[in-house]
Every structure is written in C-alpha cells, then in structure tokens.
Amino acid sequence: METTVISPRKTFSLKDIKEIWQYRELLYFFVWRDLKVRYKQTFVGVAWAVFQPFLTMVVFSIFFGGLAKMPSDGVPYPIFVYVGLLFWQFFSTALSDTSMALISNQSIITKVYFPRLILPISSVMTKFVDFLIATLILIGLMFYYGYMPHISGLLILPLLLLITFMASVGLGLFLASINVKYRDVRYALPFFIQIMLFLTPVIYPASIAGKYSFLLAINPMMGVIQSARAALLGTAPINWMLINISLVGTLVLMILGIYIFKKTERYFADII
Amino acid sequence: MEKPIIEIKNIGKKYNITHQRGGYIALRDVLMNVLKSPFNFIKNKTKQIAGFEKKEEFWALSNINFEVKKGEVIGIIGGNGAGKSTLLKILSQITPPTTGEIILRGRVGSLLEVGTGFHPELTGRENIFLNGAILGMKKKEIAKKFDEIVLFAGIEKFLDTPVKYYSSGMYVRLAFSVAAHMEPDILIIDEVLAVGDAEFQKKCLGKMNEITKTQGRTILFVSHNINAIEQLCSSTILLKNGKIIKAGPTKEIIGEYLENITPSEESEKILIPKTENNAFFSKISITNTENKTTNKIKQAEDFYINLELNVLKEIQNTDVSVSLKNSQGVIVNFSSLSDKSPEHLQSFTPGIHHLKVKFFGKFLMPGVYFIRISLHHPGTENIDTRDDILAFSILNSHGFRPINYGVGVVTIPNEWIL
User: How far is B268 from chain A (nearest CA, A)?
Assistant: First the structure.
C-alpha cells in the first residue's frame, strides 16, 4: 500500500528523483499544455517556432554579415549566425520561462501537491520542442550551402544540448526561487538576457576577442556555440577542453540551482 | 488490529509575522538598503543569524493530534483563523508542517478547489485530461472514466469547445465531475461544495454520500457549511486558535461550535473614526430585550442593533442600512431607513445620533451572522460602509426546530393545517 509521511521538509534527497519519475505523466501534461496553448494562441501556430529564428537570422545576416562585414570564421554568415541563434534561443527562452515557472503556475501550486521541480523542467522541455522545430531550418541551410557535418560532430550534439539544458535549468531554478520572493526580478531579466546575447559569441566569432577570448569561456554558452560551429561547420577543431569546462561548470550550476530551489521550496506556497 | 489510515502526531505550523505582511518585497529595495546603510544591514544580519533578533512568531496550528480509521468521514469546523485551511494545506502537502508528523496509509487525493489548472484556451476534453493529471490520476484511468465524467457534467455537446466559452455553471460542473471521479483511499476536501447551483450541489452531495457509503472511502471534510458537515460526517473536530478544542459526534460538536465559537466575542464596538467624511459610524452594539449587550441570542428572542452616528457636517437625503450575512456569505436580510418610502430619507444635523433596529430572532436560522452597515446617498455615494463589523450567533432553542433539520436559509414561522 502507498504510504505518505508528511514531516518538516528537508533539502534535496534521492527521494526527489524517484518522485519526479512517479509524476512523469504530469510532466508530460504540462509540456503538452504549454505547447498546445501557445500554438493555439498565436495565429501562425507551429510556424512561429520556425519563423522567429529564421527572421532573426535574415535580419542579422543583412546588418551584421552584409553591412557590418562581421567576420565569420570563413563560413557563410547566415549559417554561421543561425547555429549560434539556435542554441542561444533555446537557452534564453528556456531561462526566462523557467524563472517564471512558479509564478505563472501559482494557482496550481497553492492548491495541489506535486514535486515542484516538474514545472521548471517542463518549461525547458517545451523549449526543446521549439529547438527541434527550428533545427529544420538549419538542415535546409546546410543543404543550401553544401555543408556536411562530421560524424563526430553529430555525436557531440547531445552533449551540447545537455550543457544548454543544465545551464538554463540551473540558472532558471535560481531565478525562479528569488522570483517568488522578489517580484521585480522578472522585469530585470529580459534586459540581462539581451545584454548576454552580445556577451556570447552568437553574432560574432569568439576569435575576434583575440588573446582575451578565454575570458568568454566563463560563459558556458560560449563553449556550446563554439563547439556546435566546430562540429557542424568545421570552423575549427573541436576544443574538448572548452566542452569539459562548460560541462563541469553547468553541472555545478545545476546542482546549486536545485539546492537553492529545494531550500526555498518549502515556503513557496506561503508567500506566493 | 488494523492501523489507522491517517495518523496525525503533534502537528504544528509556525509563521513569522514578517512573511505575512502584505505586498511583495522588491529586490531593488533590499539592494538599495544594503547600499545606503551597509553597517545597519550587517548588524541586522548578524543579529538574525545569532538569533538575538526577536522575531514575531505566530503558531497557526499547534499540538494537533488525531487518528482516523478506514472508512470514517470526519468533519473539521472552526471560525475564521482557527487553522482549518492551514491544516488542510499541510495534509495536502502544499506547505510543510514546522513540527510533527502525519502518516497517510493509502492513496491521497486532495481537493482544495475544483478545476485547478483548467486552462481557458483548452477544450473541455483537453481540460479533463489536464485536470485529472494534476489531481493525480493516471492517463489510463482518466481515459477509462472519460465518458462517465462527461455524462455527470452534462457537457457532451461542448466537449470540443474551449472552456473559456463555457457558462460558469458548465465550468463548475465539469470541474467537479473530474474531481468526483478520483478514486483515492483518502480524500481531503475543502468547501468545494459551495459552488454551482442548488440542484448541482444536491447532486454533488449525493455523489459524495454514495462514495462514502458504498466504497468505504475515508474523507476529511473542512467546511463552513454546517449542513453539509451534518449530512456527511459521523464525527467532527472543532478547531479554535490553532488547537483542537473538542472532537466527537458531529451533532454534539456543531452545537458546541454554535454556542461558543462566535468569530469574535464582542457585542459592542467603538469604530475607527473616519474624520475625512462628513459623517461616520462611531459605535455599534447588539442588545437583547433586557437591554443588555450580547452577541448570543436565543432564537425565540428579539434583539436590537444599535448604531451611533457621528455627523460632522450636515448631510441630507441619506439612507442607513443594515444587512445580515450568514456564515456561508449569503445576505439573509437587508433593511434600510427608506424601506417604507423614499420620504424616509433622512437629514442629519451635526452631532451624535442614535439609531436602533429591531430584529425578530425567530426568523433566523441558528448560526453565525455578520453585520454590514452603510450610510449612503441612495444610488450615488457611499459615505461610510463597514463590512463584517460585528458578528453574533443565534442559538438553538428548545421548542423550535432542532438544529439537525437545519435546512434552508431562514425560518419562516408557519402552521400545518390537518
């Protein structure tokens, strides 16, 4: 028989992972709901997921690639910037959604119990679906410009996605926790995300920073985008050192995020 | 012997008063404070960490102990702030307790609200699945009961319409229907029955009765609705100020509740002056026929509500009204100076004025009532309105309807002719 014991709550334990697995159907329903609702509300529906990065790519290609003559490591600028945008948008939209995950579901949080971690995870998964849809354009671009990814390149893609996932969940959980207490965080976040776009080598190659480019490595998304370009477009040999740094960095970030989230979780329902 | 299905041991819940303060803290303000006076901040922080700072603590619940056997239906009653909802939230794991432990042996379903997580953009069909999943049902289970749910709600035709186009009645029916088809071993329910039209409420009560009687489900039922508690629960727990006052057979406990637990013990109140107005209510009291102030009135008795009006500047064409609201929030009576005709609108000269309204207790059902008073220019302007300013209870008296038949909103004396 199922037995539940309710007692003063402690921080993260293995029980939490088990619980998330138990509630996997709810996780699925949250993802399903978010996708369904969004594609119902916007007029163009699913096309939106394709349209948005595509248009950004076109505008960036005209202004940065065409007019500003931004270097692109010898790759046609549209495809160069699109690889960056693809991962960047996955990261930034997942981050902003995760940080709002608790607030936007507060009516459910205050009425029903389920492992709260499901909410931010479902936000990231929703964005992952968008990522997959937007990948179609990349495939089209690669055909158009005649690029064949290396096999080894395709193999590291899951690793890069894992890093992006951990980075957005880690940072998102942290922001979601403080968002519950300090409601002005959400107004500041879009601004920071915008700034971060320019601090990440999305529209320019990391190489333009010259000998200071190692400074950019602090940003885990730099490692991801850099490696994605190396793997898909062969701009440079894959820098495993960079990937490892990003991997360890984001893992720490995620554990820290989960820890803070679990620590503050107990009073969410009281102050939300 | 079988172990009790619910064991509640020494449950307590502490809130820090600062958490309760309204509004949200802005990170901007916190950062600004740190920048402006870093030393103060460090001092306060160290005090907090060292535990010197006197925090204002509030125990919403303390020392709650009880056990529930399988198949029992237990009611929980208590006035506002008695800790009912806190207990409910702890039982449904929405907020953790500060002390103690609860053991629940079986699948738990909690219903603090019907229609939790309904999304207006999604269709009825989609919402049944979403809501079911949120309530903890498996997808297969929902699919199996889908037709039953739709039938009970009576929304077959609108299954593929987004629920934002539903009437509020349809919405509530669908929401309740999903909830009613959960099959947990332990069901924890808040006042979800206080929704929908009367007929649907009856249907819901019927459904709940059926569940408890035929399926032997264990239910914890929290409500203001004394009638519903009486119909469903065999025994009841009475909470006051976060503690269990008494537990026992429902009939006994409800009697106790009505006699002793009036939300406030006051029968007279000096009101906060509203000097920015031309006039305001300065005092209110309830008196019985012997002219003694009291807020416990026997049902057979008459009583008076006395108002004191402080007029600062002459007011003309004003009306004064008194309404009584029962514990379910229904206004059972509204009366005003101008009830008889518009000519009864009054002008008040500066000074203190006394007004007195007589009520006949025999028309009111035993229970708790809240008074709302208002001074206004009819249809144009409110001068002073005070909601729930005082409360009183009508006590059950012998020789009249016993409380266990307590159906209805008012009692109208009538005669049976045989």
Answer: 34
**Region B17-26 average pLDDT:** 53
Cβ <8 Å between B106 and A3: yes
Which among B99, B105, B129 has the least Cβ separation from residue A3? B105
| B196 and chain A in contact, CB less than 8 A | no
Hunting for tokens 């003063």 — which residue is that? A8
ipTM higher than the 0.85 cut: no
Helix or strand (DSSP H, E) at B39: helix B38-50
Cβ neighbours of B161 in A, within 8 Å: none
If interface means Cβ-Cβ distance under 8 Å, which residues of chain A face chain B? 1-9, 25-26, 29, 32-33, 36-37, 40-41, 107-114, 178, 181-185, 188, 266-267, 269-271
Residue in A closest to B142 by C-alpha: A25
Distance CA B254, CA A87 (A): 63
Q: Which residues of A touch B130 (CB under 8 A)?
A: 29, 32-33
* DSSP state string for B338-406: GGS-GGG-EEE-SEEEEEEEEEEGGGBPSEEEEEEEEEEETTTEEEEEEEEEEEEEEEP-TTS--GGG-
In CATH, what class is B268-405? Answer: mainly beta
Confidence (pLDDT) at B71: 83
Tens of pLDDT along B120-170? 888 899 999 999 998 888 889 899 989 988 988 888 888 888 888 888 778
Buried b (16+ CB within 10 A) or exposed e, B297-333: bbbebebebbbbbbbeeebeebbbbbbbbbbbeeebe
pLDDT band at B22 (very low <50, low <70, confident <90, very high): very low
Q: Categorize the per-residue pLDDT at B347 as very low, low, confident or very high, splitting at 50, 70 and 90.
A: confident
DSSP A187-251: HHHHHHHHHHHHHTTTSS-GGGGGGGHHHHTTSHHHHHHHHHHHHHH-SS---HHHHHHHHHHHH
Architecture of domain B60-260: 3-Layer(aba) Sandwich (3.40)
Query: CB neighbours (10 Å) of residue B269?
Result: 17
Domain boundaries in chain B?
15-58, 60-260, 268-405
